[in-house]
Amino acid sequence: MTTPEPADRVLARASLAEGDPTAWFDRLYTAAARGEAEVPWTRGRPNPDLAAWVRPGEGRRALVVGSALGDDAELLAAHGWAVTAFDVAPTAVEAARARFPESAVDYVVADLLHPPADWARAFDLVVEIINIQAMPREFRPAAVASLASFLAPGGTALVSEVAEENQDMANWQGPPWPFSRAEVESVAQDGVRLVSLETIHDGARYWATFTR
């Protein structure tokens, strides 16, 4: 018996065929809410690498990219950050609000490819963990440019993606599609500079920090 293809890949392929790199996210969350699919990146707890890094926020502003069901955003809020968390999928944002009805996090629907203008240089911490890698390469420069634009002077951006150089790319099927080292480093633009870049999880993933 043939194993069914994961719903995220089926929906992503259909979305890309329509020329839209992000529509499949809401379709996947909607299917998951009906019990017809699984969202592979939701695990009911914060990202462990972010949990290991987290610092006191002391009221400073943080932005969580692709906030999903809210676990990373709530972790930062619990450490004193004033958190804005966005997702392109309205269903995900609604689910996060429902999970944390008393939350101080500002959960909003927004598109990384077309972000709100008032987010420019507005955040002291920007967190991007395994989201942009869900986009094919032709869409990534615009997404990375948006990511860099969010960072306030003196702030920190955390970027983590699957590392292409340590994967069997000849047999890889996405999404996600791993990042090259050069793609991660490209966040250093428009006054943003790379502070550190390492591989974690036995070389499987990049973990990079940037500042402006």
UniProtKB/TrEMBL annotation:
Instruction: Note the Gene3D superfamilies from the entry.
Output: Vaccinia Virus protein VP39 (3.40.50.150)
InterPro entries according to UniProt: Methyltransf_25, SAM-dependent_MTases_sf
GO MF, one example: methyltransferase activity
Keywords attached to this Swiss-Prot or TrEMBL record, sorted alphabetically, are: Methyltransferase, Transferase
Q: What SUPFAM superfamilies has UniProt attached to this entry?
A: S-adenosyl-L-methionine-dependent methyltransferases
Decide whether keyword Methyltransferase is in the record.
Answer: yes
CDD domains in the record: AdoMet_MTases
Tell me, which GO biological process terms does this entry list? methylation
- Annotated Methyltransferase domain residues: 63-155
The name this protein carries in UniProt is Methyltransferase type 12
Q: State the organism named in the record.
A: Amycolatopsis bullii
